[in-house]
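Q: Given only this backbone (70 positions), what sequence would you predict?
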C-alpha cells in the first residue's frame, strides 16, 4: 500500500500522476507535488485528483506545491 507520494520532476508531474491513477484511486495516499513548472498544472492536477478521489482536500501553497490529503 502506498501512503505518500512526493515529487518534483521538472514538469512531468501530471504524466506521473496519470501513470499512478490506479494506485491513487486504490490507496488514496497523501500527495505533495510541485506545480510551478507549468502555469496550467495547479488547476489541471487539482481537477484530476478530485475526479479520482472526491474526498481529497487540496491546498496549493505559494503557487508552488499542491497538497492532497484526506
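A: Predicted residues:
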Amino acid at each position: 500500500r502506498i501512503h505518500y507520494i512526493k515529487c518534483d520532476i521538472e514538469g512531468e508531474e501530471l504524466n506521473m500522476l496519470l501513470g499512478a491513477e490506479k494506485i491513487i484511486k486504490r490507496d488514496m495516499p497523501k500527495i505533495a507535488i510541485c506545480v510551478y513548472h507549468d502555469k496550467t498544472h495547479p488547476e489541471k492536477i487539482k481537477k484530476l485528483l478530485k475526479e479520482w478521489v472526491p474526498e481529497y482536500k487540496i491546498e496549493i501553497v505559494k503557487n508552488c506545491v499542491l497538497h492532497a490529503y484526506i
